[in-house]
Amino acid sequence: MKFVAVSSCPTGIAHTYMAAEALEQAGLAAGHEVVVETQGAAGSTPIDPAVIAAADGVIFAADLEVQGKERFAGKPTIDVGVKKAVHDAPGVLAAAVEAVKAGVATGAASTAAATPAYAATRQVGTGTRIRQYLMTGVSYMIPFVAAGGILIALGFLLASVAWAENGAIEVTAVDQAVLWTAFEWGNLQHWSVLLFQIGAIAFGFLVPALSAYIAFAIADRPGIVPGFVGGSIAGLVGAGFLGGIATGFLAGYLAHWLSTRKVPKGVRGVMPVVVTPLVATLITGALTILVIGPPMKAINDGLSSWLNGLGDTALIPLGIIVGLMMCFDLGGPVNKVAYVFATTGLANAAGDVGSTEARVMAAVMAAGMVPPLAIALATAVRPMLFSEAERESGKSAWLLGASFISEGAIPFAAADPLRMLPSFMAGGAVTGGLVMAVGSGVLAPHGGIWVTPLIGQPVLFLAALLAGMVVSTVAVVVTKGIGRNPNAAALEQAESLEAMTGAR
Amino acid sequence: MSTIPLITPELVALDIVAADRDGATRQLIDLLAAAGRVTDADGFHADVRAREAQMATGMPGGIGLPHARSEHVAVPSLAVGRVPAGVDFGAPDGPATLVFLIAAPASGDAAHLKILAALARRLVHESFRTSILLAPDADTVADIITREVNPS
User: Distance (Å, rounded) from C-alpha A90 to C-alpha A29?
Assistant: First the structure.
């Protein structure tokens, strides 16, 4: 068999390379071809995409996040950590062989289902690459937003208890210096300020982290410094998340260009530590302040004031639109546009649960919860319409839906897109519109039902969610009954099995 | 390419006696410091300890591999110690009798890092380790390593 592997370790000078050598040697001994990409301190050379395409399986012997993981999507993969590969490379290789056999054993179905996703990542058109860079930035940014947003919300929650009235406003007015000069352990107000301030600081990394990790996706480590600095400056000049996206791409391409220059031997040693970060940061910073800043600020201000200027009557259509988008492709590009719009918009929410941005976030989150919940309900009330495997999948969809993981509905949508997706979108539109109508807002970008206590108007929020869920469920049940015959039912059962094995 | 070799006979200790991995590591660090390759022995030792605390560097086959990238390292270096009585480096199969201390500068350039990468790759080979265990003197150890470690 043919394998591709990625190795990395915290220091990047020893285990990365020992693991690579051990895997290659184990491959020679066992008669397998193993090609390893060492993501260590000496820099890494990406494996030829043709080699990846020809590989039967993938081994991640990595203690750090694998760079360019999407290149390996759709292949049977084992993830073992670097130490295991150094200590027992033959065992790791044997496990990889097993994984490949297991992948093959589920039949041509799994290969068929996996291939389209893989083919999509291999077409590295400029548009696809830019979307991948953007999504890398977003995926690194979300934990900051999650930690910060939830801490802020918890701070508000505690503040509403700690102060007699207007706690959520009082907590923002307290001088944070009280925390390290006069903190009282029994004082609830101080605790709420503590939560709020930590959350606010974590939240403040939203734009810098977005920018830094877009640059990181483009240029690897050299992109991080100019990306972070550019993102911070984007925040400083008021360019918001749009500015952060621009500085991320600018810093990334600049750092990439600089780090691939041929330079004299004497200078080479100081390139990665001094010259590349210095020059890339200077140029990114200057361009951000002088060139990108002003128009970005205008766009961002325009978007914000447009959103804020929308009355309740205009917000409802917006809720419907983001609801439709969330349910259109369940984690695909259209869904991501709505989600990124909402999460990055939180930068302008200024910690206010009643702000338009927080309400957009609430609409997006609620709409994204609809498809898996509707599927779960449909399989519970009309089990005969679904295959055995689908009924099982429906049970786990309760938890996935409640946690705002829209992807839980993908097995069903992939098996029967023409019936499922319009049904989901109908429910998503209802929920999105209703959440806007009742005025719920949320500062947490994720969390689903578990952050309900942090949501403005929680009961009405849940009612809006429930309404969309029922609409979707009815639509699923009705459309499932249209144009069905026994053969089609059998076919669908097979298709849904394929989709589920492929999704794993 | 660096003109200073990764290892010299002065950086080889054939007969280390140490109670624990910290002691063995320290003796090798002192060799590096005496050769002027490490500017601050205590500082570098702290960096090595920090790395060791993340994940023990003991490998099957009686190998200990303390290492760190550190600002206290002037020249990328390797110090080798044989510990006849063995010293625990957290490997699953017992104590280490051969300890390699890799010292990398915090800002090593690509050429240096490639040499260290090549060294790490050689360490996986049992024949390489055996030849060092059986070498008659420090000069031979340094020769073997210099000869075998060729960055590709």
Answer: 9
Under a CB-based contact definition with an 8 Å cutoff, are residues A88 and A480 in contact?
no
With 0-12 CB in 10 A as exposed, 13-18 as middle and 19+ as buried, what is B110? Answer: middle
The b-or-e profile of A469-498 (16+ CB within 10 A means b, else e) is bbbbbbbbbebbeeeeeeeeeeebbebbbb
Amino acid identity at A193: V
Angle between helix axes A15-30 and A89-105 (nearest 10 degrees) is 60
Give the residue on A whose Cα is nearest the Cα of B66.
A14
The CATH code belonging to domain A2-105 is 3.40.50.2300
Size of interface A-B (CB pairs under 8 A): 82
Report how far residue B65's alpha carbon sits from residue B88's, in angstroms, rounded to the nearest whole number: 11
- The span from the first CA to the last CA of chain B, in angstroms, equals 12
pLDDT digits (tens, 9 = 90+) for A227-272: 999 999 988 887 766 778 889 999 999 999 998 888 787 777 778 7
- In the block, tokens 């978007």 appear at A303
Which tokens is B42 given?
């205590």
Cβ atoms of B71 and B38 within 8 Å: the answer is no
Tell me, what amino acid is at A322? V
Contact A457, A353 (CB under 8 A): no
Distance from CA of B121 to the nearest CA of A (A): 5
Structural domain spans, chain A: 2-105, 127-302, 310-503
Disruptive mutation site among B48, B55, B122 for chain A (greatest number of A CBs within 10 Å): B55
Spans in chain A with pLDDT lower than 70: 104-125, 127-128, 146, 165-169, 240-241, 296-297, 299-300, 303-312, 331-333, 389, 414-415, 483-504
B13 contacts: CB under 8 Å, gap ≥ 6 = B27, B28, B31, B79, B80, B81, B82, B138
pLDDT score, position A117: 33
Q: Classify residue B3: in a domain, yes or no.
A: no
Overall domain count for chain B: 1
Whichever domain contains B33, its CATH number is 3.40.930.10
Dig out the tokens for A352 from the structure.
């206010």
B60: containing domain: 9-148
Q: For residue B126, tell me if it sits in a domain.
A: yes
**Cβ pair A321, A432 in contact under 8 A:** yes
